[in-house]
Amino acid sequence: MRQYFRDVWRGVFTVLIGMRETWVHVFRPPTTKQYPHERFQLPPGTRQQLFMNADDCIGCFKCARICPVNCIYIDTVKAKPTEDLGKASTGNPIRQHVVRFDIDMFKCCYCDDCTTVCPTECLYMTDKFEASVYERSNGIYHFSKYEPALAMKMLAEQAAEEAAAAAAKAAKAAAAPKKEPAAAAPAPH
Amino acid sequence: MSTFGALGNIFKKQRYYFEGEGEMVVDLDPSAALDQRRDELIKARQSGNFPGDDMIVNMGPQHPSTHGVLRLELVLDGEIVKKVTPHIGYLHRNFEKHAENLGWNEIIPYTDRLDYLAAMNMNHGYCLAVEKLLGIKELPKKVEYIRVICAEFMRISSHLMAVGTFGLDVGAITPFLWAFRDRERILDLFEWISGARLLYNYIWIGGLSRDMPSGWIKQATEFLDELERNMKEFNRLLSGNQIFIKRAAEVGVLPPEVAINCGATGPVLRGSGIKWDCRKDEPYSIYPQFEFEIPVGEGRYGPMGSAFDRYWVRIREIEEAIKILRQALPQCPEQGDVKEAIPRRMKTAAGAECYVRSEAPRGEIGFYVRSNGSDIPDRVRCRSSCFVHVSLLDEISRGCMVADMILNIGSIDIVLGEVDR
Amino acid sequence: MTPELIAEKLQARFGDKILEFAKDAINPVAKVAPDAVHDVCKFLKDDAELYFDMCHNLSGYDLGAGKNLAVIYHLFSFKHQHWFAIKAEVPREGGHLPTVALLWRTAEWHEREVFDLYGIRFDGNPDLRRILCPDDWEGWPLRKDYVVQEYYHGIRVPYKEDWNNFDTLAANPERGHFVFQFEKRLPVVNGNGKAAEKSNQ
Ligand code: SF4
Ligand code: SF4
Asked: Smallest Cα–Cα separation from A50: which of A105, A88, A117?
């Protein structure tokens, strides 16, 4: 019985202590912010939406290869020997047209792996995070400078050239059948 | 006879001491009778005529207090829970199969998503395992310090979440908000150092993804002062509250020998009175340099190993983590390259394997990694502590009331991302 | 006790049931004949000098398509603070092992997990059901030769994307418009400030 009343007393007493704590908080400045009107300053280096600076990309596929969810889609067309595509701002020579550079930002897990491997630092994370869109397809960001129609044309041309080269090679191989076993040896690997 | 089935166990003041000597009698009756009863009940329910006074109630998967998508099948006799059958897998995505198709490095973002409230510790555990497998022994001092600092901050943040939601389960809303306020500050610190708020991908094999920004240590130290004040307030508000203590101190009792046999680790094990922490007893990284204590459950207000003991261990662990941080932050070297030890090629002999455990906030996280000689792993297995803790829910809640179930779930502090992997 | 001594002890007790002992591995592991797993575990648990009171990890793995499956047990003793690991190989089809769930409660769910993901049966496990996958899932997901089922209750299972190829892009060139807005409102921010310089140029 005594224990019971002691518990009741301590219950009331400790609740009063807690109420004093909460009462103190009434006079403290609020820690919340009214988000769309007030904003936090994001720290430097924050990882939000990706951006690719299409002038600097050399089409090395490093980012696509390291991406753990495979959400970077790149297609390149080799530059002809006569063409000069210049250099990236870090000095790496650009040897191919990056006709397609799509990032599926809905699939991206914002892991930041791709930006660390990029040799020209043309792929980086920006501080924009309000990227909701109304259509699923708008979540795929296209960064290439090339129009889709032109890109398809260039890809088709390259495919045709490659096919022609392969045909020529096959013809050559047929002309010189002796070399065939040597060429076939590494194939099983 | 089942030692932990009846109500008597809960209301009797019982103290267990783990001696480590002599025979430990563990009753491993898988309660075949109850299983049979459950099957009978399911059959009866299917056929439509429902006999007797036992009842099956499903709790979850959309129950707000199950901390995720966990479904518990309770066999009830009135208010008393006779048996709990957890059903998991609602969040299953087979991390282990993913890992078999990715490079050693690319798995790290996936480990973030195991225990998303303690992502740094998951990164750390995985990296420790792979480093051991690849034979990387010496890491730069700076890397080790930043790793430990991040892991301890993550522990604080995760425990704040745990104690806050535990209060919420009992019915106290204010402490939850206060805990979130402090947790938010820690996430701000992490955002500054790693760029992300929740899923960091920060600790890499042999290094870190980026360097510590200048001024970070100062900010972190200032935050620690504030956190200490806030924790005092928090304790006055919740931990000292007699109503809360009375509510939590007599439910969810887990005796130590059962805890060991069930594979409990972390605060659940220490709450049962066993002084074991693999940061101290099997040290990794630079933990031996720091002085801290291992808090254990004391059974001050009820039987040892109760829900309150686990809660109290977490509160004390926050204090110990602050202690570690106070030692580590001033010692952390400013100079140094955090990427210099990252191996270029990650390959080992085929068939090499190792199992490494480390102390995450929710228990010991173990990674079993196995290589097949190429640069993608053959097998990565994550031994998750939450998975084990869900399996002992039946053990700690047989004989309790339905309302105590919520406390029991809250007190073992599970994250379903780690349970289901 | 060191793992070598434990292995010697096991060999003395069980003879040729202990198939081999890899003592140079990072975690020394003894390979045990599948039918002796329970006896070995019981000995490891009950012997006063060994006293492995905790089964820390129980994991399956696949040695490759067409080869055996294996299960590895990592045991730990709180009393003596030592580790030991044993493993057992079972054939791919119809492989089964005696359960250790009645020695360590924690093994019950781990065995269920191995059963779920590898299809190894554990004789005597009190509750051997699938645990992570749904009860009517087909196949054993973590086997190397696993092929995912095509449909599960009318839901297509394999993830397939058909909307990100060039044909659909050419058919609908408007799809890229969001990018350009995004580009316009792009100042600033990279970790090392390089991007900021670039965008200023
Ligand atoms: S941030 Fe990660 S997931 Fe996203 S595109 Fe880059 S590598 Fe892929
Ligand atoms: S890594 Fe950089 S340069 Fe290479 S393809 Fe990707 S964005 Fe272009």
From this structure: A105
